[in-house]
């Protein structure tokens, strides 16, 4: 069964607190669910496995991943439900933090495919800090005072930053060799997207063979490193086409890391369904 929490015109951020909750059957949903266990013990159930949860556990469930909960001892958790496309948070340089990419993008996919016998657990002071943030978010999302949505999103961004920082320094992240290396590669690609790249060069940076990097990247990200890089470049080109409407297409291609403007145009049409020139004309009106 697929559940949907948000209506099209609703605020795409909601905080739910389940205190000593009863068992929730396995289900799916179309939003992201950030889970913070604050007390007690329970079990997280997926079609592939079950594992014990306790205070301090924090993890992300992406859309389309069936899961449920079984209560054991005074189980209490917060569910932060959100739709990132509609929130459109300004990440700025948070994406450069290895823990951000690892926790919010790579780790959920690895856990979905292989299961995690070990998962991220906060220390007592970290749990107290994040619980306070989430409680304040919950208050703001339920408030009707002017500015409450702004305050809720500001707190949510602060929560993202703290999770990324804490995860970067966690033993789980540092000891998960593949997760750490892939996160470093993703961050490098995003910071150097206009530079000449080769799989061999990226593999050397990740201390992997090119074949191992390709397999790990496809398994976790869903595409090869070079396809991921091209997607980044096309996204940058879309912005540049609109920000600099008089810039020739060949120069747009060059500024986004493409040596061949004809190849750029073909790839742009393949990824977006229209040529760069048509995209600019369509979105300038």
From TrEMBL:
Coiled-coil zones: none
InterPro entries recorded: AraC-bd, Homeodomain-like_sf, HTH-like, HTH_AraC, HTH_AraC-typ_CS, RmlC-like_jellyroll, Tscrpt_reg_AraC-type_HTH
A GO molecular-function annotation: DNA-binding transcription factor activity
Matches recorded under Gene3D superfamilies: Homeodomain-like (1.10.10.60), Jelly Rolls (2.60.120.10)
HTH araC/xylS-type domain span: 183-282
Alphabetical UniProt keywords: DNA-binding, Transcription, Transcription regulation
Short name of any one Pfam family annotated for the protein: HTH_18
PANTHER family in the record: ARAC-FAMILY TRANSCRIPTIONAL REGULATOR (PTHR43280), HTH-TYPE TRANSCRIPTIONAL ACTIVATOR RHAS (PTHR43280:SF28)
Protein name, as recorded: Helix-turn-helix domain-containing protein
Source species: Victivallis lenta
Lineage: Bacteria, Pseudomonadati, Lentisphaerota, Lentisphaeria, Victivallales
